[in-house]
Amino acid sequence: MTAKISKWGNSQGLRMPKDIMESLHLQVGDDLNITIIDGKVILEPIKKDILNYDLNELISKIPTNYKASEEFDTTLGKEEW
């Protein structure tokens, strides 16, 4: 498989084919470690720690006196940006 280095603004970029992205379980925005060994560029995905949460445990940590609240405003046209 071949790829071409392209100019993107003041930078250069290399497009990665979709099948490679899928086989490495990569998504747009993921980080890669780049090294050069014997004149070869090595791209390695940086593994993310996958956090496992137990929903029941998280819910048990909500204070018993907690009350959810919402505010609604019908004012239109005076939004602050």
Describe the structure.
This protein is of the alpha+beta class. The protein has a domain at about 10-60: Pemi-like Protein 1, Chain: D, CATH 2.10.260. Helices cover about 15% and strands about 25% of the residues. The protein has helices at about 20-25, 55-60; strands spanning about 5-10, 10-15, 30-35, 40-45. The strands form two sheets. Strands 1-2 form a two-stranded antiparallel sheet. The protein has a two-stranded antiparallel ribbon with strand order 3-4.
Number of helices: 2
- Supply the CATH architecture of the domain at 9-61: Ribbon
Structural class by SSE content: alpha+beta
What would the principal axes of the Cα set say about the shape? flat
What is the helical fraction, as a range of percent? 10-25%
CATH class of the domain at 9-61: Mainly Beta
Mean pLDDT: 88
GO molecular function: DNA binding; toxin sequestering activity
Pfam families: MazE_antitoxin (PF04014)
Organism: Arcobacter acticola
Protein name: Toxin-antitoxin system, antitoxin component, MazE family
